[in-house]
Structures are given as structure tokens and as C-alpha cells.
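Reviewers asked in the last cycle whether our approach scales beyond single polypeptides. To address this, we selected a multi-component target totalling 979 residues and predicted its structure end to end. The input consisted of the following lines:
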Amino acid sequence: MNSFQEVISKLKNYWSERGCIIQEPYDLEVGAGTMSPETFLRVLGRKPYRVAYVQPSRRPADGRYGENPNRLYKHSQLQVILKPSPDDVIDLYLASLEAIGIDLRKHDIKFEEDNWESPTLGAWGIGWQVMLDGLEITQFTYFQQCGGIDLELVPAELTYGLERLTAFLQGVDSVYDIEWAPGFSYGDVRLADEVQFSVYNFEMADVPTLWKLFELHEAECRRLLEAFPDSADKARFPVLPAYDQVLKCSHLFNLLDSRGAISVTERVGVIGRVRKLALGVARCRLEQMEGAAPERTAAEVAQ
Amino acid sequence: MSIPFLLEIGTEEIPDWMIPPALENLRALFEDMLKAHSLSAETVETAATPRRLVLHAGGLPERQADTDELVFGPPQAAAFKDGAPTGAALGFARKMGVEVSALEVQQTPKGEYLAYRRKIAGRATRDILAGALPEVVLKIYFPKTMYWTGKGGPRFIRPIRWLVALLANQVVPFEIAGVKSADVTAGHRQIGAPRLQVSIEDYRSMLADNGVILSADVRREKIRSEVGAILAAKSLRLRPDDALLETLVYITEFPTPILGGFDPEFLNLPEEVLVTVMRHHQKYFSVEDEGGRLAPHFIAVMNTNTDRDGLVREGNERVLRARFNDARFFWTVDQRKPLAERVPDLAHVTFQAKLGSYLEKTRRMEKLARKLAKMAKIDAGPAVRAAELCKCDLVTEMVKELTELQGVMGGLYAREQGEPEEVWRAIYEHYKPVGMEDSIPSTVTGCLVSLADKIDTLTGCFRVGLIPSGSRDPFALRRAAQGVVKILVEGKLALPLSKLLGDDEQLREFMLDRIRYYFKEIRGFKYDEVNAALAAGYDDLTDVESRLEALREVRPTENFEPLAASFKRIKNILRQAGFTGGAEVSAEILEAGPEADLFAAFGRLRKRVEGFRKKKQYRQALEAIASLRPQVDLFFDKVLVNAPDPQVRLNRLTLLHKLLSEFSSIADFSEIVTAQ
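The resulting structure, written as C-alpha cells, was:
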């Protein structure tokens, strides 16, 4: 039986052998592996790239105080980016399942239509959820647009839900019963996290403080984005730090949301503010890498 | 000689619901392409699995028929001099590569010209297909397409990974997105060979041997018969679900149903929840026992040939158990906070940016429900209570997870929380009718709450300019309007539309379209009958229905259509005369005979018709009107409307106008299309 950490290391090995850089998780709060700059910024431009990394993903509203066997405030994704996507990308993916001990001839695999979209990131793609014996184990996406920019090379994004996948392999009904390492369950490692962060996110996070932080990070990002066009040496301009500010804003928005602090009328507006920052960073980054700003898409012009 | 052709577009998994229309489109594009190249096939068949779109044509010619083309040279007059060819003629013949004797003379509008009939050999079908197929393939319509080779590359529903194109077993060479056509296909991902060399003859059997059943009909039948066998052995019955069956047919290359089970404990949860989880989230069929009760089993359909070790069954059972556990958790947690306490939470759920939150919508619906109950003369209490609670399930965990259950869940929670049946049932059914096939809510209170919801959506959206155009209807306003019509008519609610919808002209037009659609397409009334009845007003739709039914009954009777033709004639006469009424008929200047007789008959009938109309005895009223036919006929036969004396003329127009306007209040006869 594979422990949680064995599943992770086998998948990392597998993708490492297929030419992927193995990155570490991004060290800021993100809602999904897609938000790591290793995906959001790397998929831009003409430079091929292959990377795989585990990304702990925080979704404050999904927290359940550790009481629900399948729902977590923070879960782990194994994110793989293959840019451009190779012709045999599905075969590669299926072989990765074999690599963690799933005999495909004994299981039922289906690719069910599921197109991914993140309005906040100005990103969308076409793809499937991959079902293994009725369980969704992977989101498979051909990225079409990111940061509002049409992508030159179409990357394939594979996102494995690690807790689900491991629970499936281990035959357990609750994520907390997953064996993380011999002698340690997932619950041993993470239950306190889930409880305390649920309490904080739903009950104790101070709403005025969160708003203040949101505005500070937003202002800092905007300051940088506004300075970019006039900077003398664009190559060393801190676009990547500006993106960190976007991630901060996105996470603060999620926190405010789980506190029920964002009213209906505000909601669309706040999402729009984060989106504007994300789109701005993507444009600057692309210009930085390739020397010229992309054409603005019709959707952007219309805004 | 006629030869067969096979095209297989090998792709990654295409969304199931897009496949049948794509095949139809492929066939049409292929046939159009043949036609454009003066080719035709004796048969064209299509088939598909999620990974391949296939077209098989029989009886194609090897090449186009030869044709000829007339090439014009110099005018005849300049071509010969004294019977001998001139330089112009010789030059033209040389250019055509023939002797002057091979040329002919052609008559044209500009005179006689020397011409040469040049033979054009037909092109080989293979060459034509090679040139035309890429466009045929890439033109197939899909609702949403993608790039895969990069920006600016070809677009298709999913990446194209291989192409088989064989004409009489010769490869038709072409290339799409770097993929070259060949004679190599792929078997099933798990139970077939990844590369299979095929000929037209062995294509299907090679696929069958490699885990791919090409025919959707065969896949469907395989599912049906194997499900039947599995269930018969257990004395269980399937709950048929044709839409789910179609999804499964097009999401598999080799469907194999298996039976799974779940803990009977879960049967304590509402059946609606269990069935929805199985149907929408897991694509399982539900199963019932011989008594029709939901059984603790399900049918899953695999996309592979066997579950020898039972791993797939166990996996699916585990997933379902987790989902049911979730549902049970939601059911318990949701009960901790009654619906009534959730009303304020609706402030956090957006209905529509410009129309505010669901709390605001709820308040509007309560008011509307009160008004509707008053108009329908029933106790407003239950309707208002149901309106207050009906959106509260949007903030329950269950509905956040299983959105399909909105309304139903609210009803179930309301029942658990001790709301009276009239209230909980109205909540349960307030989204009904979901489609034209669906029934309306089963109680008057339910009908009113459903109306309040839909009317609020309609008037609100129209007020802020969210009006459907073409196929764009993001708020499903057509469905809402259709629901309003259906509820009013089938719920026998004689509520005036003008009071429900206000005086928005665009909304009125929009509703009129839906009313017309309902009576024509759903109820099967003829379009001219619908036009006739609606021309006489449509404020009360139950009344429209009664008038239409009367019209349908009276229409085949002897006098009706001829009278309708006469009414049309009257309408034309009045229009030509520019006459809009206003005066009274002066009996003293009526001419004795047909004119006076018509007036007298009209006078007698008018009271009777009015009496019937008041009692809504529309059939009798229409029959009475139709009985006027002999007098009308005689009038037109003998009497000249455009009399020389202007006073007489005016009087006659007045008579006709009275006749038309008095007798058009049930149906405008002149709208009826008659054979005459």
C-alpha cells in the first residue's frame, strides 16, 4: 500500500523522468496550483516549459472543522504543466496512474467534459475531469487563455487531487484515515490545522483588518504596475513581486468571503479588482519576457 | 466502377452530447462537398464513439464524369475569307492544338463565332477528396472549440490525433494539424491495441476485436440487455432514464453495466437526494424493488469489458458511500437551522447584479403572492409563507452541493420543520414546470408561488434591459414565460395578464410569442385559429383556451369557413374605404331585400350572441354567428356596397363595420385562412 508521501514521491519521480522540473510548493497562500507563478506566469509566452509540484491549496470556505470526511480547508494538488502539450499527453497521464500502482486493465477510466475557468485570473481552458471507478481524480485542461492573454503554446495542465487519489488507493472512506507515513495518519498531521483554521476563517478573522490588508496589497500591486511602463530597465523590474500582491489579495478576498463580509453588490466589484491586477501582471510579465506587450483582446478592450 | 470510402477522425474524448449533432453535420458537409465537385455517393453512413467520428460512403465513382467546355475564338466573319481560314482562325486552332476542321460555329447574342469544344477529363475522386477533406473536417460545428497546436492553429472540439481516410483501400492523402491521413486507427485505451492497420472491409471487426463498438445502437442495446439480465436475476427493476442512457452510450467505446449496492440505512434519506446523487453526480441508474420502492442498489456503466476482481464495483460503491455520507451530513446540519431563520442569509446570495439579492427577490415574491392570492380569491397565508421560505434552501449545504435539488430540498426541509402540506408542497414544486413536458404545480397555492417567482424574474429582467435576443437567454426568461402561460391555462387561473405583467410593451410582445407557441406547438391548435382567437384579446388565457376550443369545434361546420371568407372580404372593403366606423346604421335608408334582411338578421343575432358570450358559451355563439352566412352571401351577391349615393354607401359600410366588430370579440374570423 502506498502512503500519502509515497504517492507524491512516485508521481514526482514519474514526471521528473519525463523531463519535468520538480518545483516546491509556492510559499504564499493560493487557492489552487494554477495560481502558483509556476503555472500562471510560466504558461505565457513562447518558451517551452515542463514542471511538476505539489501545491497545498487553501479554500477557506471549504473548511468543515475537520468534521467532514471528504472536505478540507487546505488540500494538496499535484500540478503538472507540459508546455506545449505533447501529442501523447493522455498516454503519459495514464501511465502516471500505472506508476502509482493502478492497473488500468482492472479499472474503469472515463474522460468527462469539464471546462475549467477562473474569471479572477482571466484564465480558461478546455478539458475533462478524469473519473476512476466513479471518482474524480484529476482535472485535465488544455489552457487556452491566461491573464486574459491567448496562449501561444497550448499547455496541458494536469491537476491530481492527492488526498482523494490516496484515499482511493488505500481504500479508506475518510481523508483523515489516510496513512501519511507509516504510523502517521493524515489526521495526525493535519486535523488541528483544519479545526483551527475553520474557526479562524469562519468566526474570528477580523474583517476590518482583512479589508485593510486587502487594500494595502492592492495599492502596492497597483503602484508597481503603474511604474512598469516607464521603467528604464524592464528586465529587472519587480513584476514577480507584484504577482505576490495579487495572490495576497486573492486569498484575502477568499477569507472575507468565508466570513460572509462581502455583500452581494460588492462581490462582483471586488473580483473585478483582483482580476484587473492579475491581468496587469500577466501583460507586464509577457512584455518583460518577450519585449512587446500583447495585443489587447476584445474582451479586455470592452472592459 | 463504384468504390467505397472510409473516413475516421480520431480524437481525444468528445463531450457525449455534442456527438450526434456533429455526425449529422459531418454527413451534410461531406455530401455538400461531393455535390460541389459533381460527385455523389450511393450511401453515406456515420458512426461515432467518444474518440472517433466516422463516415462511411458507398458507391462513389472513381473519377468525375468527363465534361466539355466551349472555348470561343474569333467571329465567324473574321475567321474565313473567300472560304479559306484567315490568320485569326488558324491562330485560334493552333492555340487549341487542333486543325481548323475541328472547330465549329456557335451562335451567340453577338453573332456567330468560331468555337472549340474542349474535352475536360474528370478528376480522380481521390484527388478531390484529398483536397477537400481538411475543410470538411474542420468545418464540423461544435459549440465550443479549442486550439491545441498553438495560437492561430486549427480549432476543433478536442485534439485530432489520427486520421483514417481510405478510398477503395488506397489512402487519401491529406494532413490536418500535422496529422497525416493513413490506414491506422486506435483501439480502446485499455483493452485494445494502440495501433491498428485497417482496410475498409475489416475496419469494424478490427475495432470490435480491440474493445471498440462503433455503432451507438449496438452499444445502447448492449447496455439494455445486460442491465435486464443483471436485474432479472435479482428481482429488481430499472428506473428508466433515457437521457442518462444516451450519455452513457456516447461516453463509452465498450459499455459494460455492473450492479453495485449501498447500505440500506441510507434509504432513510429522502429518495430525491439519493436519486439525484446517483443520476447527476455518478451517472448511475437507480433501481427499485418489485413494489416500486427504491432499492439499495445501482447500475454503473463501465467503459471496459470486465470487472473480474470486483474492483470497479467496490470503487464505485466507496465513492457513492462518501457522497451519501456527505448528503446525510448536509441533511443533519441543515436541519439545525430552520428555513425561516435563513431568510436574512439570502441577502448574501445574488439574484442578479442589478436586481439585488435573493432576499430582495423574496420580499417582492411575498407581495406578489399576496396579490395573486387575492386575485384568485384564495387565502393568501400559505402562498405568502411559501414565497417567504421557498428560496431559503439556496443557503443550505445540500443545495450548495446538489443544485439540481433547489426547491425540492426546500420543500422537504419545510415538511420536516412542520410547515403545513399546502406550504411545503408549494415550495417543493415552485420551479415547476421545468420544461414544456413537465407538469404544473399540483396545488393552487403552488401555482401562485411559481407564478410569483417567474413573474418577478420576467418583469425585473425586462425592467433592467436583460431581454433575450436570438439564442441568448441567460436567465431562461423564455422558459419562465412559458411556465407562466402553462400555469395560467392548465391551472385554470383566470388572472388578467395585464395586471400580472404591467404595461411593458416589450414584455407584452415577448409573452404574446410564448402564448402563440404554447397554443400552437404544445396544444396543437392551427396557427390561423390561434391568430383569430388572440386577435380578439388575450388578457385572460383560460378564456383564450375556451374560445380556441369552440373555434376548433365550429370550424368544420358547413357555414363557418364561407362566413370567414366573407368576413375577410368585409375587412378588405373597410380597409380600402378607409372606414373606421363611428356612425349608426340608419334603418330608413336600407334597401328592402338582402340589405334590410341582413340588418334584421344581425339585430336578432346580436342579442343571442351576446347572451352566449356572457355565459362563455362560445361554441353556441360561434354557431349563431355562422348561421348568418346565407344573409351575408345574399348581401354580397345582390348589393353594391359602393353605391353612387354617398349616404347609402356610408350606411352600408357602417352596417358591415358593425357586423365585423360585434362578431369579432370571440375570434377574429378574418384571420382564418380559407380555401376560397
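Chain B is about 50% helix and 15% strand. We regard this as preliminary and will revisit it once experimental data from Aim 1 are available.
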